[in-house]
Design a protein that fits this description.
By secondary structure, the chain is α/β, with parallel strands linked by helices. The chain has one domain: 3-Layer(aba) Sandwich (Rossmann fold). Helices cover about 30% and strands about 20% of the residues. The chain is built from six helices and eight strands, in the order βββαβααβαββαβα. It has an eight-stranded mixed β-sheet, sandwiched between helices. Helix 3 crosses helix 4. The longest helix has 19 residues. The relative contact order is 0.13.
């Protein structure tokens, strides 16, 4: 993306695969050229200001970012309170795997048609609940990269491991009470068993939600480092170009 290029962000409405009306929060750079795209899956608090900000940050990196409103069947454009997580979790429990799959498929279809994104240049990232949905999307859609920030309940979806299309980047907080170390070990074991490419990053000092600057658990150092790795991971998978040299490595080598 060129310096000073404007970002356009807005809600658009599409029809999900089950016939329901789905809202997509879209952020993209102005300009007609083809861009890579990223699906952004929200946590239990909905497409809130933090998720919209992440989408705009991705647009600032040159991506077309789309955040589907996964609660649109029961509470369209729901925005939960970080002070009342149980109410947000209750809203999340009203969703279904079938509905989530339909929404992810519709968002992907919008990206690769109206969004002008080539089909081989789409990635996904998600937070909390959305981290597990990014795992689901990686199994159900032809993604090139998928990122999970503190993805609770991925350990319940290990049957999808052999079907993952793209490398996974997994961020964990060492102090996260919602994802036990044993769960993380089971996830890594499944990825290794099925020879799926992945990168795992644990911040020993960070809690659940460390990336969100609107939460008390926010950790600026962990968030900054995670964002740097996110940018590199997406660029390597989605932006065409020569491989990046590894400092101290052989000439022409690429980053792992």
């Amino acid at each position: 993306m060129s310096a000073g290029e404007a970002i356009r962000s807005e809600w658009v409405e599409v029809r999900a695969d089950d016939g329901t009306d789905l809202g997509l929060w879209v952020a993209r750079p102005e300009g007609a050229e083809a861009r890579p795209g990223v699906l952004v899956f929200h946590e239990v608090y909905g497409v809130d200001p933090h998720v919209r900000d992440v989408a705009r940050r991705l647009a600032g990196e040159g991506y077309v970012a789309v955040a589907p409103d996964l609660f649109h069947r029961t509470a369209p454009r729901f925005e939960g309170s970080y002070e009342d997580p149980e109410a947000a979790r209750a809203q999340a429990r009203r969703g279904t795997a079938e509905g989530i799959a339909a929404d992810g498929s519709a968002a992907y279809r919008w990206l690769t048609t109206q969004g002008g994104v080539p089909q081989d240049r789409v990635g996904a990232l998600g937070f909390g609940m959305g981290g597990a949905i990014a795992w689901r999307a990686n199994a159900g859609l032809p993604l090139r990269a998928a990122i999970s920030f503190y993805g609770a309940r991925i350990a319940d979806l290990l049957d999808l491991a052999p079907h993952l299309h793209a490398p996974m980047l997994l961020f964990w907080g060492g102090l996260d009470p919602h994802v036990a170390p044993g769960e993380r070990a089971r996830i890594a074991a499944a990825l290794k068993e099925y020879d799926r490419a992945y990168v795992e990053c644990e911040f020993s000092f960070a809690d659940h939600g460390f990336f969100c600057d609107a939460r008390g658990e926010h950790d600026p150092a962990a968030a900054a480092q995670a964002w740097a790795l996110t940018r590199a991971f997406l660029a390597e998978a989605l932006i065409p170009g020569p491989p990046s040299p590894v400092p101290g490595g052989p000439p022409g080598g690429s980053a792992p």
